[in-house]
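Structural biology now treats backbone shape like a language. To illustrate, our science desk offers a sequence and the tokens encoding its fold:
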Amino acid sequence: METASLAPAFANLRASLGEAGAGRVPVALEQEVRAIYRRSPLYQQRFPLHTEPLHWSCYREIPVLTKQEIVQRGHTAFFHDYSEIERGFARKQFEYEHTSGTTSGPMTVVMEDGWWNAQTRRAYLAHPVLARYTDRPYRKCVLAPVGCSSNLCPYEDHPFPHRYFDGTVYLNLSSDPFAFPEGEWDRIVRELQAVKPQVIEGEPVYLSLLARALARRQVQVPSVETVILTYGKASRQHSARIAGAFPGAAQVDLYGSTEAGYLFVGDAFADNLRVVEDNAFIELTPWRPSTGSGPAAGEDEVFQIQVTTRGREAMPLLRYHTGDIVRRTSGGFRILGREKDLFFRGDGTVVSAHEIDAVMPAGFACWHWSLVQVSEQRWEFQYVADGIADEAVGAAIAAALGAEARVALFRRKFIQPAASGKFALLKPLAR
């Protein structure tokens, strides 16, 4: 006999899922599942769905979708007649985006015209700081990873006025931000002064390096009210440097992906991330890493997430495994990072960027860092800073990593990102 205990946990509010009888999938979630089955033939091919009321026992049998499967099957598998989609590209009814994510090859994402703006608006409405910018004009600058294609992040080599769209200027050109020559930073700083943005959005590392460029030029941009940290995982070091460049500006953490849209929003480093309820259902799967030992005490609140998009016409996602790990907190959620970027101590404790931030000595400051494991006990702490780190930094990080860990410090001029343009703060050995 089925009971409510069969129901998986969700990060969403109960009201977003809808009402449900004993053992039944809630109304709103079932409606979305069946709509996804109608829109994309892929799901019926993978797991045929009956017409009877959907119970949790059946829902759990729907296979989890991965990025690797999307790449292998190809994006055309989501559509009954892809020639209609191609005609839609010509009529501007659809657009496409390439994203690399954690896969070895590029993944093509097809989206209906207006979907990206609509789900972004819903994400803004889900946070009080961002909500005040919806449905009214405001000025914004974006510094995105170079891997973000020009469909969503237009940064082609056009003069400044031609990169200004509906109050937003995209600061990227064809260069890689981690290695911008000083002339490029001169251009970016001039554009910031010209636009006088109320909002700056960007990859945290790039925004931190922008803060360094502003400090070197002794330039202030007092118009900035809000900084949106997105595209990648931020460190408190980045946050502090950004706060120094834009004093008093609120910092908001906006998490999502090209293929799934924006999923969580909250105050940066406040452990209060909440689901953007109107964008997705987010299923929580208890995570038990294969480290050879059981999870440490208190690690039962760590989860993988599976995403089911809401109201998506083109390439809707059902039980989509993003590869990200979250921790449930008293105030909401904390994104720990990609599963492959997390380290586990011998006792099963999860070590993420949060734990490394927590042990860095108060006197240490850097513009960027990356902690790389080079052997079972040896790590390199690579950092970009104006001064040389004290050995106490390495000792503190080694203690956080666990017994016998040794940390060597390496000061760098820059730290190169992955091919996607994103950065990994932790790089443990592959398990």
